[in-house]
Design brief:
Blueprint (H helix, E strand, L loop, with lengths): L1 H7 L1 H17 L8 E4 L1 H4 L6 H36 L5 H54 L4 E4 L6 E5 L6 H9 L3
Parallel strand pairs: 1-2
Antiparallel strand pairs: 2-3
Helix pairs in contact: 4-5
Length: 181
């Protein structure tokens, strides 16, 4: 969703990039303050157990997609049957069938949303151990090599994934903006 917001507001992406670059340039350059990067898309497939987790998730998604497709086929079939019978139905029966179709459509949409939510939860469940392990290793490398920041260059926007907390200038900026001590 955040990626969608950035694509609909390209000026926001430009502003964030300029501020990030300016912010990095404004950081007092302490000895050893270095910016580094990783490519998470290359790391994940190398992790033990990741292929199995990805396969399990793919099977789960296939099952969810099959259920959604079955719901759509059933709704489409009911809609076609209604269209064929509509000319012969009384106004009362037409309203009743239309209500049934609307209810069927609503139930299908609700189930599709439930399955999408379940897929997100399953994805998080399966990937969480890998994400925690990667984050631990990256944070360790950042500290070990005295790096200031590490970016992921595998995705658009080069996400910041680890940063030395001592480089956070937020409180100083707030002090200067508010005129506080």
């Amino acid at each position: 969703m955040s990626q969608n917001r950035l694509t609909t507001r390209p000026w926001a992406l430009i502003a964030v990039t300029v501020l990030l670059v300016a912010g990095v340039a404004a950081i007092p350059q302490q000895p050893g303050t270095i910016v580094a990067f990783v490519e998470l898309d290359l790391i994940l497939p190398q992790m033990p157990g990741y292929a199995e987790a990805e396969s399990t998730f793919s099977e789960d998604i296939a099952s969810y997609q099959a259920e959604v497709e079955a719901l759509r086929v059933s709704f489409d079939s009911a809609g076609r049957a209604y269209q064929q019978q509509e000319p012969m139905l009384s106004p009362t029966m037409r309203q009743q069938r239309q209500a049934e179709l609307q209810q069927m459509q609503q139930q299908a949409m609700t189930r599709e949303q439930e399955l999408a939510q379940r897929a997100q939860e399953r994805n998080a469940e399966l990937l969480s151990p890998f994400e925690v392990r990667i984050q631990t290793v990256i944070d360790g490398l950042r500290a070990e090599r005295n790096l200031g920041m590490i970016f992921n260059v595998s995705t658009p926007g080069n996400q910041l994934i680890s940063v030395d907390p001592s480089l956070n200038l937020t409180s100083i900026v707030i002090q200067r903006i508010t005129g506080g001590p």
